[in-house]
Design goal:
The complex is a heterodimer. Chain A has two domains: about 525 residues, no CATH class; about 30 residues. In chain A, about 75% of the residues lie in helices and about 5% in strands. Chain A contains 25 helices and four strands. In chain A, the strands form two sheets. Chain A has a two-stranded antiparallel ribbon. A two-stranded antiparallel ribbon of chain A has the order 3-4. In chain A, a hairpin with a 2-residue loop joins strand 1 and strand 2. In chain B, helix 4 packs parallel to helix 6 and helix 5 crosses helix 6. The radius of gyration of chain B is 19 Å and the shape is globular. Helix content of chain B is about 40%, strand content about 20%. Chain B has nine helices and ten strands. The termini of chain B are far apart. A six-stranded mixed β-sheet of chain B has the order 6-7-8-3-9-10, sandwiched between helices. Chain B has a four-stranded antiparallel β-sheet with strand order 2-1-4-5, with helices on one face. Chain B is α/β, with parallel strands linked by helices. The chains are: A mainly alpha, B alpha/beta. The structure holds adenosine-5'-triphosphate and magnesium ion (MG).
Chain lengths: ~550, ~280
């Protein structure tokens, strides 16, 4: 009887819950405190810190998914919403996590108080700001590319509400969403340290967690414990990759909408054992029935007015509410900075030079990233065997947050004679290279086999082959990859131009460092707002006048669907 | 949903009496479908269709022929309510039709199957949307899967099927909601000649032997032979804008044979109208 009903997934979840409960109730009361000046870094509490961080990440991820699905869906089905959501996401995407600190502090902590709830919500909000935006775009793109006939068929069959979501919308977005969730998850970890220590000048909150643990051990030079922390971090990342992301992405391939007569490659038909038990898990089933399904239905009921063409009472109320919250938040920030306008902010005049210097660093970092990712992508993408072996390893390495190692890298390079300028360029590279690599690999793979064979038979080789086949073939993915890489680079600047190690601040002149200074040291809202505004404007101008034309060129001339 | 369910149940059990009682109610029953000066333009002001005037009676198998781009698919979408007509009226059973007509079903040229659902789930999807319980909808779906000759493939995914089998799924999905009006948009043109002719015979067989409750079929094609083989009546569509050039009955006895002289004559007649 026991044998028959025991599902390894259920057993695993059960054991996990018990273990977590033990850690929570044993250690929680001892170390969960926001007031203590420093964390207790003894090894015994590491499980609790890990658990706290993972819990924050999971909650942030779930909320990001919900918001991403809703925002992407609204944008996809209604032009009116698309005009609001897409540009807003584009702008917010380029605001680095520090830029959200004032909002986190002044909104969440003011409303929910500076107790655990307020600060936790603030931290989760900060993680969301580094995980959300690409999800919105993924959902938007997947829904708008559902073949027209499939949409017509679902209308003809009368699919609505929950059934429409589970039969059409969710499956259609699943493939892109799963892939982007993996990226968001890695991004969240990349900025976790910055999200667990929320500081604006004298306002100082530090949540117990793996991020703050690493920050503290590193900045005090307690390397033995820092290494423990890094090991645990790596184990957690690898475990999540193996248990969640890798199976999820494998499985989601079957949800790709392919209109062509393509047959699925045999390996994607292979059923994963884990998946087999997951689909039969009573626990997961119960979670779905009790939590997920009512959530979907509830949210659908809530947003229904937003989808109606005619304006309804409830629709206007919700729309106005969102709008009012938005306006309120902005007004709050602006009024705060106006109040501080009386305070002198001499660093203001440093913004233009800081912007230029950071931009140059970004270009240098981009060049470094490109120099190694382009050959690597061609090597990996061209060879099925190599990519099958190497890619999983690279995916795992890419998902380990380099930020956790920043203090070590800084000290190492400085000790060997490098300067902080070079160091911060290398650090920014860690926030850019993976976007390039994965996009380029996808691009190399997308070059059709017959084109390869024809160029071989025409005797194209060396430079000519590069010019005529490889470069045009990967050009679209090069543009997309570069765009996301540089976006990621701007975000990574705040962590790369200003590093605390062994109790000292190592920094260079740049917009990221300026923002750090304005946030962590002076708490000068005026400086924060101005740096971010300057930075976002700069990014938007570069996007508008460089990347957008490049992107259109890619679509016009080099698209491989003819 | 309530009335749909009840009428469907009545139709399932007593198809003959249902017709009789309908005649008692009104002296002259309204036609199943009527288009009154329907036109269609897209937002970029290109006039695609019409004005089109068309009546489809119960029991008719109507074939629409026309060159590529003449607006055949658009016409079917207007008929099924998937797009609104720009002007004119779509009258269904005497009532002005607004929005999607769930008494009608559409078989797509591109199959339009949900790649992540099995054959069974695809076929039963319309019933799921109508709120049928799982055993109910699977029982009914299985009937139509058997009818189109797909038994044994219930758990396969569309990408594991050949083109002909995919179109059978599309057909079964349309039949499962037991539509009064069945619209088919070039259902055979994506298939090879042999498979197409097989499936044609099968559709005719299902229709002529009254195994389904469907009251009328509208089939779109650009093959004249297909029109003459299957239809009771052929509408010839002209391009730019799409309008009805000719409306001819095809009074050949069934079963029709492809190479017979009368068949060839009909084909030639229709061809002369198109060229
Ligand atoms: N959504 C749309 N917006 C603008 N024009 C459209 C749209 N859909 C169709 N058209 C145009 O309407 C015309 C008729 O299209 P339709 O698909 O109805 O033709 P068809 O007769 O079914 O052609 P085919 O035999 O190739 O399937 C075409 O010129 C097409 O370009
Ligand atoms: Mg068509």
């Amino acid at each position: 009887m026991w044998r028959k009903t025991a599902n390894p997934v259920d057993i695993g979840i059960g054991l996990l819950v018990i273990a977590l409960a033990i850690v929570l109730f044993r250690d929680g009361p001892h170390v969960y405190s926001l007031e203590q000046p420093s964390l207790d870094v003894s090894l015994r509490y590491l499980p609790f810190y890990t658990m706290a961080s993972v819990a924050r990440m999971i909650v942030a991820m779930i909320l990001s998914l919900i918001i991403g699905l809703l925002a992407g869906y609204l944008a996809a089905v209604h032009k009116r919403w698309a005009d609001l959501i897409l540009p807003a996401s584009d702008i917010l995407q380029s605001v680095p996590v520090l830029g959200f600190f004032p909002a986190a502090v002044f909104f969440f902590i003011r409303i929910f108080g500076s107790g655990a709830i307020g600060v936790e919500l603030a931290a989760i909000f900060l993680i969301i700001t580094s995980a959300l935006w690409n999800l919105i775009f993924a959902v938007y793109e997947s829904i708008t590319t559902i073949p027209e006939d499939l949409q017509l068929a679902s209308r003809q069959l009368g699919l609505r509400g929950y059934i429409q979501w589970t039969r059409l919308v969710l499956p259609a977005v699943l493939h892109k969403l799963a892939y982007n969730s993996m990226i968001s998850w890695a991004n969240g970890w990349y900025f976790l340290i910055a999200s667990e220590i929320i500081v604006i000048g004298p306002i100082h909150y530090r949540l117990p967690g793996l991020g703050s643990y690493l920050a503290q051990t590193m900045s005090t030079g307690n390397y033995r414990h820092a290494v423990y922390g890094l090991i645990v971090l790596t184990v957690v990342i690898v475990a999540f990759h193996l248990v969640v992301w890798s199976p999820l992405n494998h499985w989601s391939v079957r949800f790709m909408v392919d209109t062509a007569e393509t047959r699925v490659a045999p390996q994607t038909r292979r059923r994963s054992v884990l998946l087999f038990y997951m689909t039969r898990s009573r626990f997961l089933r119960a979670i779905w029935d009790v939590a997920v399904r009512p959530t979907i239905e509830g949210i659908l009921w809530l947003i229904r007015p937003l989808l109606e063409r005619e304006r309804t009472r409830r629709g206007s109320v919700i729309a106005w509410f969102i709008f009012a919250v938005f306006l309120g938040a902005i007004a709050w920030g602006v009024s705060g900075s106006i109040m501080q306008l009386t305070r002198p902010a001499p660093l203001m005049y440093d913004i233009p030079s800081a912007l230029i210097l950071s931009f140059l660093r970004l270009i240098a970092a981009y060049a470094i990233a490109l120099v190694w990712t382009l050959p690597a992508a061609i090597w990996i993408g061209r060879n099925e065997e190599i990519s099958r072996r190497v890619l999983p390893v690279i995916e795992i390495i890419a998902s380990i947050p380099a930020t956790a190692f920043f203090p070590l890298i800084v000290l190492f390079i400085l000790r060997w004679g490098g300067d902080m300028n070079l160091t911060s360029i290398l650090l920014v590279t860690t926030g850019m290279q993976w976007y390039l690599l994965f996009n380029l690999i996808a691009g190399v793979r997308a070059i059709p086999e017959d084109l390869q064979q024809i160029s071989d038979s025409l005797g194209l080789a060396g430079f000519t082959k590069w010019k005529r086949l490889v470069l045009p073939g990967i050009y679209p993915s090069l543009v997309t990859g570069s765009l996301t890489a540089i976006g990621g680079g701007w975000n990574a600047l705040v962590l790369s131009e200003y590093v605390v190690a062994e109790g000292r601040v190592y920094s260079v002149h740049g917009i990221g460092a300026l923002l750090d200074y304005g946030t962590y040291e002076s708490g000068n809202l005026q400086l924060i707002v101005m740096s971010i505004t300057a930075m976002v404007l700069f990014i938007l101008i570069v996007n508008r006048f460089f990347w957008q034309p490049a992107y259109h060129l890619a679509q016009r001339r080099f698209a491989l669907n003819y | 949903m309530g009335p749909t369910l009840i009428t469907t149940l009545i139709m399932m059990t007593t198809p003959v009496e249902e017709k009789a009682s309908a005649q008692e109610l009104t002296v002259e029953p309204p036609p199943l479908l009527e288009l009154r000066d329907v036109t269609k333009s897209f937002s970029n002001r290109i006039h695609i269709l019409g004005p089109i005037r068309l009546t489809v009676e119960e029991g008719e198998f109507v074939v629409i022929i026309g060159p590529s781009g003449s607006g055949k698919s658009t016409l079917l979408r207007v008929i099924t309510g998937l797009t609104d007509a720009t002007s004119g009226e779509v009258i269904y059973k005497g009532k002005r039709q607004w929005g999607v007509n769930h008494k009608a079903a559409l078989v797509f040229q591109s199959f339009a199957l949900f790649p992540w659902l099995t054959v069974m789930e695809n076929v039963a999807l319309g019933l799921e949307a109508q709120g049928f319980s799982k055993p109910e909808r699977y029982a009914r779906a299985r009937r139509y899967i058997d009818l189109v000759g797909l038994d044994g493939y219930e758990r396969a995914y569309p990408r594991e099927l050949s083109g002909g089998m995919k179109q059978r799924v599309g057909l079964a999905r349309a039949l499962t909601v037991e539509p009064e009006l069945l619209c088919m948009d070039e259902p055979f043109s994506a298939l090879d000649a042999l498979t197409a002719s097989n499936l044609r015979e099968q559709v005719l067989d299902i229709w002529l032997s009254k195994q389904i409750v469907t009251k009328a079929i509208i089939l779109v094609t650009h093959s004249v032979e297909e029109a003459v083989l299957m239809g009771d009546r052929a509408l010839v569509l002209a391009s730019k804008p799409g309008r009805i050039l000719a409306d001819r009955p095809i009074a050949l006895p069934r079963p029709r044979r492809l190479k017979s002289p009368q068949f060839e004559e009909q084909v030639d007649q229709l061809y002369s109208l198109i060229v």
